[in-house]
Amino acid sequence: MKHIKAIVDTFSEEEAREFLLFQQKKNRRGDTKNEVLFNLIVHGETKNLDEKVYGSPAKNKYHALCKRLQDSLIDFMATKSFSGETSQEMDILKLLLAARILFEYKQYKTAFKTLAQAEKKATALDVYAILTEIYHTKIQYAHLDPSIDLAEVKQKCLDNLQHFQQEQHLNIIYATIKQQLQGPSDASVDQVIEKAFKDFASTVDSSLTYKTLFQLLQLTATAAKLQTDYYSTLPYMEQLYALVSAKKEPTKKHLFYYIQILYLMALAHFRNKNFEKASGFLNEMETAMQHKNKMYHNRFAEKLITLKGVNLNYRGKAPQAIALLEEHKEHSLDIALSLLMMYFQQKEYTRAFQILRNLNHSDIWYEKKMGWLWVLKKSIIEILLLIELDKLDLVLSRLQSFQKKFNKKLKSLGETRVLNFIKLVAFYYEKPQEVTTKAFYDKVENSFEWIGKEREDIFVMSFYAWLKAKMEQRDLYEVTLELVQK
Question: pTM of the predicted model, to two decimals?
Fold first, then answer.
């Protein structure tokens, strides 16, 4: 039951409707109990479901029904993903599958032609795992085509296996690094990465594939995000990007990974308040997204627009930033949260509150979809917004809820600054008249361990800007730009 609920919680309303249609087609008999159970779970029912489905206690029937529903949900997710996926690798897999079906139906000429298309595309993209399956199929049916040079196919297969083993070797290194970064460690991210490569007798250099370099950049960026420390990781990310730039292969061949690399570099520079450099990488990313007939444009448009918007905002171009994000706010939670922040900074509290009201799913749902850091930001902005709107009856409940949700986790991560900030917000809520006093100023100074303007995270500074603006009785956006612009 827990597994079913976890899957169902990831569905949007539209996906829930699509699943019911999918299930109705599968139900050959008049038995619709699986649909009944699904609807109960969608509407939050979790207790005595066997009685609600069958009219009386029926544990054995219920467990069998849960198994069938779970299988259907997984089948639906896989079918939907396969049919809707437009990546090049998925296109190759579809060609391979089609070729195998054609072989089974003895349509050999068309089968070999389809398999050749798959091989050509897979070779161009260096997708060694799929090529292994393609050569396996080609060798299996080679006796049906006299024109096939079996020795040549065999050599290609052996060469590909060598590449595949090397890629698998790198994948093991990647997994090792990822596991080590999840636990507590005194070593920096670059030290963890270098040690893992050394342990496997490998080196981090330009011979690594675009995919591997992207994975290393992604690992570094993920660690920076979790530790709220993009400053320490930026030099290593720049070293990795230098290896990307030194590669002789054309970027268009590995466009998917190259676009993601440009995005990670833009994000890292933005979080370090290097807005001009971030803008440069975003421009390169936007240009790369035009290649291959805009094949990846839709896939990365949301990330590009979100980062472009917030980068404009912190360069002092709030109107342009808001106009850009307003065009796409219905399609992205990240854009919605960014707009919420921007309207708040511009004292457009009513518009900000409207966006907040539209974020009407539970925090559990948002955490599964967007991560707990996204929920943390949303919760902080919500408290500040409610204070500005004088909805003081809600402020206390939100403050209490914040402590319950985040206290333990933030303490375990050593992020006491966030908790201290919320305490100061609560103090301001209770005694707003004291915010301009020296006593409150001293309280703020003693509540934070300041790490310097260059090292401090941009979003941490943005929240602190609200307190500073209150203490100095100045405009929030003006104070924010003053803090973050070097």
Answer: 0.73
